[in-house]
Amino acid sequence: MTDTSTSQSVLVTGANRGLGFECARQLLADGHHVIVTARDAAKGKAALASLSAAGRGRVELQLLDMASLASIRAFGERWEKEGRALDVVVHNAGVMQQSPTRRVTGDGLEETLATNAIGPYLLTKVLWPSLLRAPAGRVLMVSSRLHLPGSRGESVRFDFDDPQLERDYHPERAYKNSKLACLWVTYELARRSAATSVTANAVCPGFVPVTAAESVRGFMWFMMKYLMPLAPFATSLKDAGGSLKWCAVDPSIAGARAKFFAEKRELESSPESRDADKAARFCELAAKLCGLDAWP
Ligand SMILES: NC(=O)c1ccc[n+]([C@@H]2O[C@H](COP(=O)([O-])OP(=O)(O)OC[C@H]3O[C@@H](n4cnc5c(N)ncnc54)[C@H](OP(=O)(O)O)[C@@H]3O)[C@@H](O)[C@H]2O)c1
Questions:
Q1: Residues 198, 139: contact at Cβ < 8 Å?
Q2: Less packed terminus of the chain by CB within 10 Å, N or C?
Q3: Cα-Cα-Cα-Cα dihedral of 52, 128, 248, 57, to 10°?
Q4: Average pLDDT over residues 254-274
Q5: CA dihedral 8, 10, 15, 20 (to 10 degrees)
């Protein structure tokens, strides 16, 4: 339990279901003030209703589509008008496409990279003044061990000559590349903000079949929903939500910068994720795609 003096304001993206919802539920139970975001108003309101009964903390809903630059900018303007301080942003919203057909957002960006990496990059930028107003703002990117080379399935391969996979699209590669890009944003942000009060870190929540089941169909759905959760390598929804909460607010890691966590301890991310030139290059690309001057 958290007393009111240590209660944090935490914004969790994509919190209408899955890990975001569970993380929000646990934060509220501990008395934190949680701002949940959802792209769909009806789903957001339903989540808000069940979260409101979850604990002592205050919960509010904001509509935010992470695949739309205009939605993120509009949210940032609304938020900044209020001049609020924000202690933590948890970039949880994410997609893992199954279809072999490449999808683009209304901004013309490949959807997985847009939602999982470009959106969080822009959202961090618009929330930056608010994070600086907090005593020790935290940025938490939800990445994945799947960014590691050799992880199951189609391998990670980020080509700066084809960052949006126009030539060689594969949904699994798009996902892994986006989670590598998340780490680049985290590490570049941590480097550039070293002299500020804001810290940036990333987390892998573990393999959570029950939520991953939402992205698949047929027999795979059955496996994910009912069989995989029994596997020793699977993580429960409760543990994964707890691990996000720990990275977001636990005092034991206050001041940590540029770390990659999993199961509440530090894990080594791939050598490529630690390539400072690539991290800077990705942030330059993200800025360009968002129509910004270089940031951070
Ligand atoms: N589950 C795992 O095994 C696993 C492992 C490693 C990493 N992760 C990462 O953990 C995070 C949460 O995963 P999860 O398993 O909880 O996924 P999930 O159950 O599929 O939930 C994803 C959430 O993100 C939201 N979302 C998707 N696209 C969005 C957009 N354009 N704008 C706003 N919200 C959007 C979804 O909203 P809608 O309801 O509107 O679709 C939903 O609330 C993701 O970043 C995922 O990549 C998951």
A1: yes
A2: N
A3: -20
A4: 98
A5: -70
CA separation for the pair 51, 34 (Å, rounded): 10
If you measure from the C-alpha of residue 18 to the centroid of ligand 1, how many angstroms do you get, rounded to a whole number? 7
Q: In the chain, what percentage of residues exceed pLDDT 90?
A: 86
Whether pTM > 0.90 for this model: the answer is yes
Torsion 123-125-126-128 (CA) sign: positive
Nearest residue CA, atom 46 of ligand 1? 94
Domain boundaries along the sequence of the chain: 4-289
With a 6 Å cutoff on the Cβ, whether 235 touches ligand 1 is no
Q: Measuring from atom 42 of ligand 1, which residue has the nearest CA?
A: 14
Q: What pLDDT, on a 0 to 100 scale, did the predictor assign at position 1? A: 54
